[in-house]
UniProtKB/TrEMBL annotation:
Domain of life, source organism: Bacteria
Keyword Membrane recorded: no
Protein name, entry field: PPOX class F420-dependent oxidoreductase
Gene3D superfamilies: Electron Transport, Fmn-binding Protein, Chain A
InterPro entries, per the entry: F420-binding_dom_put, F420H2_bilvrd_red/Heme_oxyg, Pyridox_Oxase_N, Split_barrel_FMN-bd
Domain Pyridoxamine 5'-phosphate oxidase N-terminal: 7-136
NCBIfam families xref list: Rv1155_F420
Keywords on record: Oxidoreductase
Length: 142
């Protein structure tokens, strides 16, 4: 029987290892767009980078509503779905700082600066998703 995760449990779950998120944004016609992302948690915000001219970048600039799913596809299965609103920054110091932190999570500390330099450039965005709603379940197949 599925079990609801506590606040501490879902935060640990989404932050474990190199789990990616599947981010859903709203297209201009109202239809959903889903894309995989790298991210980190920062308090009550989920933080990620994207290009200003990508589909998700354009969607977020127009409509900040977002949802993110992180899951474990191995038995007994688990998932976390976060909903909220995105705030965008083009401040290059912020973009670079967080690009390095995200790069460190997914590629290792030794490559953090490489990702900060690559993604901390004009045309890249820092996105902070304020988490408003959480659905988190573990042991889905038990």
């Amino acid at each position: 029987m599925a079990q609801n995760m506590t606040d501490e449990e879902w935060r640990a779950f989404v932050s474990e290892g190199t789990r990616t998120g599947k981010l859903s944004t709203v297209r201009a016609d109202g239809s959903p767009h889903v894309a995989p992302i790298w991210f980190v948690l920062d308090g009550d915000d989920l933080v990620f980078n994207t290009g200003k001219d990508t589909v998700k970048g354009r969607n977020l600039a127009r409509d900040g509503r977002v949802a993110l799913c992180v899951d474990d596809d191995r038995p007994p299965y688990a998932f976390v779905v976060l909903r909220g609103r995105a705030r965008i920054s083009e401040d290059l110091d912020e973009v670079r700082l967080w690009a390095g932190r995200i790069g460190a999570r997914y590629m290792g500390e030794d490559r953090a600066e490489e990702f900060a330099a690559r993604n901390g450039v004009p045309g890249e965005l820092l996105v902070r998703m304020s988490i408003e709603k959480v659905l988190a379940q573990a042991a889905v197949s038990d």
